[in-house]
Amino acid sequence: MAHPAPHEPTSDRWSAVDAYLTSTLVTHDDALTASIDSLTEEGMPEIEVSPLTGKLLHLLARLAGAHRVLEIGTLGAYSTIWLARALPDGGRVVTIEAEPHNAAVARRNLERAGVADRVEVREGRGEDVLPTLSGTEPFDFVFIDADKESNTLYLDWAARLGRPGTVVVVDNIVRSGHVVETDAGAQIDGVRAGLEMLQGDPRFDATALQTLDRKGWDGIAIALLV
């Protein structure tokens, strides 16, 4: 049987594929939709993860058997809701948000989704909040989705606050292909430094995936603490 000619990955084509996969595999509800809509309504940047990535985070947390989840970068709590819904009874998400307005919106969205009782929103910059988590029970899953300039700091704290077997996911590691450039600015420098840390730091074993979806061309790194 002849195979159809391949399509070029144009934005129209990958958007259509993303829409098809999302409608086929991701069940959205009013709470998730409202958390996305709240970004526009509140004048916040619309940089939440895509629905497919949200579902991926949810499944990875379940596959890891996570009871304690750390999220760095809450925004409107879209990804937080996905992660909270992955937890068993007694599970807990600690999510860190630097902007008080974003944190307030996130708390409303968590209440609407019915998961506020299993999520603690910590306000402040990651560099200030993360040290306060030392001495607590280790985290089983860490999602890093904040300022890219601080990726190495966040990865170091993920290793300190995790345990062997903890899963660490870092978002936005391709940046429309700019990750291959060495003079593309501080954000790209931060992404590259984080990836180099994942390669060279013996606490991590990592890989990465490129993604094409409604958020454009990007990717995630997935690491295991060893």
Automatic annotation (TrEMBL):
Q: What Pfam families does the record tag this protein with?
A: Methyltransf_3
CDD domains recorded for this chain?
Answer: AdoMet_MTases
The name this protein goes by in its record: Putative O-methyltransferase
InterPro entries referenced in this protein's UniProt entry, alphabetically: SAM-dependent_MTases_sf, SAM_O-MeTrfase
Which molecular-function annotations from GO does this UniProt entry contain? O-methyltransferase activity
Q: Source species, please?
A: Microbacterium oleivorans
| Keywords assigned by UniProt, alphabetized | Methyltransferase, S-adenosyl-L-methionine, Transferase
Q: Which GO terms describe its biological process?
A: methylation
Range of residues in the leader sequence: none
| Domain of life the protein comes from | Bacteria
